[in-house]
Each structure stands twice: as structure tokens, then as C-alpha cells.
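Comment thread on ticket #2218

A.B. wrote:
> Attaching the input chain for the structure job we discussed in standup.
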Amino acid sequence: MDLDNLKSLWNKEDVSETPEISPEKQGQIHHPLERIRKNMRYEFWSTIVLLPIILVVIWFFPIPFRFRLYIDVLVASMALVTAFFFSKFFKLYKEISNPTLGTLDSLKDLLHQFELNKQYYLSFYLSFVPFFVCEIIIITESIPYSHDYTDGLLAFKFLLSILFGLFALYFAGNWWFKHFYGKYIDKIESLVKEMKQN
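C.D. wrote:
> Ran it. Output below, let me know if you need it in another format.
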């Protein structure tokens, strides 16, 4: 195959540029992104305020020192886990704070980042399961019981409270994500689908 044949094959190739996003579509995408950024800031600052309040409230409850110490260690561990997940959170926040949304590919990449952060969110809530179980154990051990309770009844109440707490944690996490992020991500996904069809 000579050089002229190669040139003609190269010229016949359909090299399409990445589709540009119109200013109108960029404006439509800007609103859900701004809502996501606002909700991320709200979540960060509410967590920063909430953790010290929890520690202060614990110190006002009349519980034995060792139980208070256990709860303090658990809350401090929860704060470390939260700091790790917020580091992932900040990475996404920085990416949507300075978006380069001029092309459809950049939007697809952003949607991929949202999907990754949804998985981080799920992992974040799952990481609280052991903390929750430990806190239930501490609370159960610190409450004085009358002798009317049998071991079976105590075990049943313990398991029931753990199951209730885990379901509450799961549904609260799902609701929180959908309410603060999911509906805006869905809007962006529908805009991307609409642009793909055009």
C-alpha cells in the first residue's frame, strides 16, 4: 500500500469533533449544579457543627465515666471516618465549582463522578453500622434493668433496636441522598440524554 492510498483512507475517515454544548443548555445545567454545590456546603457545615455538639451533650448525661469514654472514642472514630469521606466529597465539589462544561464528554465525565460519589455515600452510611452497633451495646450496658427482665427478653430488645436502627439508617441515608443530590443529578442526566438524541 503506497503513501497516496494511505492519505486517501485517512481523509475518508469520519473524524467527528466532540459536540459542543449550547449556552442555553449550559444555563439549564448550571442550576442543578449550583443546588448540588449549595447542598454540599450545607452538609459539610452542619456536620462540622454537629460533632462537637454531640460530644458536649454526652458530657452532660449522668453515665459512668467508662461508658462516656467509650462513646467519646466512638464519636472521635466516626469523625475520622467522616473526614475521610469528606476528602472525597471535596474533590467532587472542586470539580463542579470550576466546571468545563463546554462539551458533552465533560458532562459525561461529571455524571461518572456523581456515580462514584453515590457509591462513596453508600459506603459512608455502611461504615457507620459498626459504630451504631457499638453505641447500642454501650447504651444497653449502661441502662440499669430490674430483675424482672430475662436474658432472652434483653437479647430480643437488643436485636430489635439494632434492626430498627439499621433500617432507619438505611432509609434516612437514601432519603438524604435523593433529596439533596439525586433529583439534581437526575435533571443533569435527562439533559445529557436529550443532548445525545439531538
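A.B. wrote:
> Thanks. Noting for the ticket: The chain is about 85% helix and 0% strand.
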